[in-house]
Amino acid sequence: MIDSNLRSLNEEEMAHVVKEMKAQRFRAKQLFEWVHGKNVTEFAEMSNLGKNFLADLSKNYDLGHNKIIKRQVSADGTEKYLLELSDGEAVECVLMRYRGDFSKKRNTICVSSQVGCAMGCTFCATGQSGFVRNLSAGEIVGQIYEVNHLLATEGAESIGNVVFMGMGEPFLNWDNVYKAIKLLNDKNGQNIGIRRISLSTCGIAEGIRKLADSGLDITLAVSLHAATDSERSKIMPINERIPLGELMAACSYYQKKAKKRITFEYALMAGKNDSAGNIMELKNLLKELDCHVNIIPVNPVADTKSIFRPEKKAVSDFAKALKKAGINCSVREEKGLDIDGACGQLRGKIAKKGLF
Ligand code: SF4
């Protein structure tokens, strides 16, 4: 069944809608450009579609009703948005205003793929609140469209990079995530370069293999955080079901097929995974792969009293030692610490106050 949210539809599906309405095929292309290229939020904005056509269209279709209900701006320019969905649920996305080489602006958005998450990672606020439901493709791209719409009204640069690293495990909602990526990459839509899209998984081996087989040239990141099964299982329950051996086999498969470097995320937690022994374990685990380790000093999560952020010096010492051990790595720039930057924190806070 076709989703009533037009943001979920590709041009082929819009052509089907248009045909049902007995309108001409070229209307589908126009509709696609308005919805996915120009991010309209009201039917009336689609000025060349004709009043009768729009009136007919609005009987069965809508523009998703994603609404920004909260915006937090960090001292470093990072912005966090809480979006309300049509059923009253809410998801977060985070806009990071980086400046890359030659001071070229490079706005990156971190989007959610599910409401809540079933994976239960101990260091993650979303993981503590449980799974609610998958997002549709329209609700995924809607996060980018709503923020872009807002940026346009403020005369700011639009979004150039998309990272699937917000709430939810993208491979457990793969069909909708795949569709959203295709929509974002469409030249008549946002036209975001495929290599400017990244996806982060907590280690769903089957999903990694599917991505390899799909031929999508996006960047793959794997949340690793520990290099032995016993330690990883303590912080990431998924490791009980998909242990490191299985995960690494899927990563090798991906690398052979996609011929791309893999990023491994390593949330550095004081006293938990930051020892010299941990560095040797990482070296052993990753030695066969072309990879990069992204060290992320963990954000404090109020509900998890056993996880502590490491000191700056401990972070740089860890990175130095890892490089010395022959592992390519960098420390991720810290963003939005003062605005509950970690995934799920804003939604959790607002839900506790009973605001949705
Ligand atoms: S870190 Fe990602 S996979 Fe783990 S619980 Fe949080 S949202 Fe889910």
Report on this model:
The protein has 356 residues and is of the alpha/beta class. The chain folds into 2 domains: 6-60, DNA polymerase, domain 1 (Orthogonal Bundle), CATH 1.10.150.530; 67-352, Aldolase class I (TIM Barrel), CATH 3.20.20.70. It is 38% helix and 19% strand. The protein has a 10-stranded mixed β-sheet, with helices on one face. Strand 3 (90-99) and strand 4 (105-111) form a beta hairpin. Helix 1 (11-20) packs across helix 2 and helix 5 (137-153) runs parallel beside helix 6 (174-185). The longest helix has 17 residues, at 137-153. The protein is elongated and about 70 Å long. The chain starts with 10 loop residues before the first helix and ends with a helix. Iron/sulfur cluster (SF4) binds at residues 117, 119-121, 124, 126-127, 167-169, 202, 343. Residues 117, 119-121, 124, 126-127, 167-169, 202, 343 line the site of iron/sulfur cluster.
Quick summary of this structure?
This protein has 356 residues and is an alpha/beta fold. The protein is 38% helix and 19% strand. It contains 13 helices and twelve strands.
CATH architecture classification of the largest domain: Alpha-Beta Barrel
The main β sheet shows up as: 10 strands, mixed
CATH superfamily of the largest domain: Aldolase class I
Overall spatial form: elongated
Low-confidence stretches: 350-356
Oligomeric nature of the chains: single chain
